[in-house]
Amino acid sequence: MQLLKFLGYLFISSFILVSCSDDDDTTPVNNDASRVANLRPLGSSANDLLSATNFNSLSIEIVSVQGFEPSAAAISGFREFLQARLFKPDGITITQRTVTSSNNAPFTIEEIGDIENETRSLFNEEDDIAVYIYFADGGKEDDTEEQVTLGSAYLNTSIVIYEGTLRRLSTRPTAPALSTIEIATLNHEFAHLLGLVNIGTPLQSQHEDEDAEGHCNVPTCLMEASIEFGSGMMGMGETIPELDPLCITDLQANGGR
User: Fold this and answer.
1) d(Cα 229, Cα 255) in Å, to the nearest integer?
2) Residue 33: strand, helix, or coil
3) Is the pTM of this model over 0.85?
4) Domain of life of the organism in this record (predicted)?
5) CA distances from 77 to 31, 57, 163, 196, 249 (A)
6) What number of other Cβ atoms are within 10 A of residue 176's Cβ?
7) Where does the chain show beta strands of DSSP type E?
8) Which residue blocks in 38-92 are alpha helix, DSSP H?
């Protein structure tokens, strides 16, 4: 399932199309018994992430290539998004560390899976659910001049952010600040782990985009597949897109806030 985004499309001065690859119909990491719970299809852990039914806490492991770490503002904005939507009475922990470059950019999703195999250290344990986020020093293999991918949520607890691509976009005239792009991309991809839209969290009303599976048809929603986002575009400036009430209702019905 190749889904379009920035959350759909990010239109900056040169009208570059940006895509969100949420499920590449593959299981790119190994089947080690200790990792099975973190090797499930996208959206299958939505309730576990949203609620405290099975997991009282969340540990997010951010692994970045040296020199491609997310900004402090991005981590702060991402944490605020999680706290607003998840029930985790024992808290949300975000740890960060860096690794050397694989020198494999641009990446296939299989190569990202191999990197996860080598660098992921946190997995579900007792009542703590773990999520892995890799900040890559390049882009996705099938990027073109017209369309690039900012991030992929590819398993139930796995995300890649193509930080190299985000940084290139942020240097364009009238582009949003890098931290704004990072927050929007992180929030959008994590919302796919939460099962939006209709990929693990059932719809409470019909708002899935018929032309972009897994995305919302409400204008300006964080999960919209096509949105103009930049200085002067739709009057948004540096405003981070938010989930619309229909997406929030879906999450609340599946155990979230």
Assistant:
1) 30
2) helix
3) yes
4) Bacteria
5) 33, 19, 16, 19, 21
6) 25
7) 3-4, 17-20, 57-65, 92-99, 128-135, 147-155, 158-161
8) 46-50, 72-85
Run of H or E including 211: none
Range of the structural domain that residue 228 is part of? 3-253
Torsion of CA 101, 104, 111, 7, to 10 degrees: 80
The DSSP letter of residue 252 is H
As a residue count, the chain comes to 257
Cα separation of 148 and 254, whole Å? 32
C-alpha torsion sign, points 247, 1, 21, 173: negative
Identify the DSSP state of 176.
P
Residue 60, domain CATH: 3.40.390.10
User: What is the rounded CA–CA span in Å between residue 50 and residue 252?
Assistant: 8
**Distance (Å, rounded) from C-alpha 166 to C-alpha 189?**
14
CB contact set of 10 (below 8 Å; sequence gap of 6+) = 16, 17, 18, 150, 169, 181, 227, 229, 230
- Short-list 177, 172, 101, 96, CA closest to 131: 96
Separation between Cα atoms, residue 190 and residue 193, nearest integer Å: 5
Maximum Cα–Cα distance across the chain = 50
What are 22-43's pLDDT values in tens digits? 555 455 555 577 789 999 999 9
In tens, the pLDDT along 101-125 reads: 999 999 999 999 999 999 999 999 9
